[in-house]
Amino acid sequence: MNEQSITPPDTSIPEPLIRKKNHFSMIWILPLIAAVIGGWLVYKSIWEKGPVISIIFDNAEGLEAGKTKIKYKNVVIGQVESIKLDADLGHVIVMAQMDKDTESYLTEKTRFWVVRARLKAGQISGLGTLFAGAYIAVDPVHNGMPSSTFKGLDTPPVVTMNKPGGHFILKAERLGSLDIGSPVFYRQIQVGQVEGYLMDDDGKHLSIKIFIDAPHHRYIKKNTRFWNASGLDVSINANGLTIDTQSMVSLIIGGIAFDNLMDSRNNPVAENNDIFTLFDSHGDAMKKDIMKKYQWLLVFKGSVRGLTKGAPVEFRGIHVGEVLDIDTVFKLNSGEILISVLIETQLHQFLPDNTTFDDAKMKKLFNTLVAKGFRAQLKPGNILTGQLFVNLDFHPREPEQKIIWEGKTPQLPTIPATLEEAFAVFNKLLNRMGKIPFEEMAHDLRMVVKNLNRTVKQGDIVLKQINRTVTPELGLTLKQVQTTLKQAKKSLAAVEHLVGSDSALNQDARNALNELAAAAQSMRMLTDYLERHPDALIYGKGDKK
């Protein structure tokens, strides 16, 4: 067997030297940089991320999640993230992400509203949203408790919180043509706007909130008078017809004006949220100070047709009050149904200027006035419409009466209306004429005629005797006397024929009495009809045209 020889390894080939690298590979720099940048962005996003708030609106018109911005002074401070309906489906809840710097003014007083194109109170706003879309505006308020839930406004506020000026409240019985944004004028210069209005709890008055820009708000004094300047203020006086308006704007959309009384220089400036009265016209507003009003109860026996609530109460042509209510009163003792009229008067119309009266002095004053004949009476104010008003005046010839102070409202003495008084006098005249004894007078006249006829016959006999005894020279004279007596006899016979029981004169007299009675009855019917329909004097008894 052949043995193979083993060749020993070549020791001349060197062994490899393995060394370990100590430097960092450049390829790992890029991932590290990306991780650092990503971490920084995450940190910055979390750190700079502001609060999430919810805003409740009636609807989401013009709003889009992820697009609609929240702006303050046209600077974006947030964005709408989501929009959803609330549980009762009555409102929408807008979730918005706000910037971090907004936390300090997200308080309970902060207001949000949607800005879109609007036309109201003669003003156009939000036209830019026609191209850029609607956005949510904010009126920030730093004072207040922090909040994350807000109720969005239906309409943009007229005045923002940081606007300088003064807020005031006006009390009125009706709104008229006023609306949010209606202008407020001072000497025909617009110095403010109507912020809003609200019905009072009593349901009889309105509270109108207005804002007066600075520095004009310092012209509002404690005795400043406000009036409704909507439309035209038309007045007729001795100088003729006067037409006044604040501006064309107030003529179209309404407005409010104010001014101060002549003695307001030393009057203090009004404070914020002071309450004033809103008068209907400039004339009403600038009257002298209105003192305490007093209510009176008037009781009438006749008809009050034509008298309505709000009818004026006048004293010799001066407006001193108005009618508040009209009702019926049933008297149990007499069984009568009377008409009660409640009026309200202003005491200062009966007093000298700068006179202060308490209730005791007022009671004494009116007791004195009534003792001198002070009475209330209904009078026609317009013959075409038949409207009545209450007139206060002195009637010294009226029977003495007193004020009934017992009860809730004092009762002032009254007298019948002018038309009723005339009808009463006419009825008395007719009654007196009806009591005249025309038949007895005719009977007496017939007796007188008979006695006269008897006397004439006796005179005829005497003349015949004289004719036999006197001389013939008197014959001619006696014949003439006899002829005269015959004529007188014929005349007396004719008179007797006229006034006899079956004579035409007697019959005519009876017919005249019957016609007079019928005329009296017709006159009573006419007076009753005119009392119910005074306008028949103009239109007649037929249908009104």
TrEMBL record:
Key words of the record: Cell inner membrane, Cell membrane, Membrane, Transmembrane, Transmembrane helix
Residue ranges constituting the Mce/MlaD domain according to the UniProt record: 50-140, 167-252, 303-394
Primary location recorded for the protein, binned into one broad class: membrane
Gene Ontology CC: one annotated term: plasma membrane
Coiled coil: none
Location(s), subcellular: Cell inner membrane
Stretches that traverse the bilayer: 24-43
Pfam family, one: MlaD
InterPro entries: Mce/MlaD, PqiA-PqiB_transport
Keyword Transmembrane helix: yes
Protein name as catalogued: Paraquat-inducible protein B
Source species: Desulfocicer vacuolatum DSM 3385
Lineage per the UniProt record: Bacteria, Pseudomonadati, Thermodesulfobacteriota, Desulfobacteria, Desulfobacterales
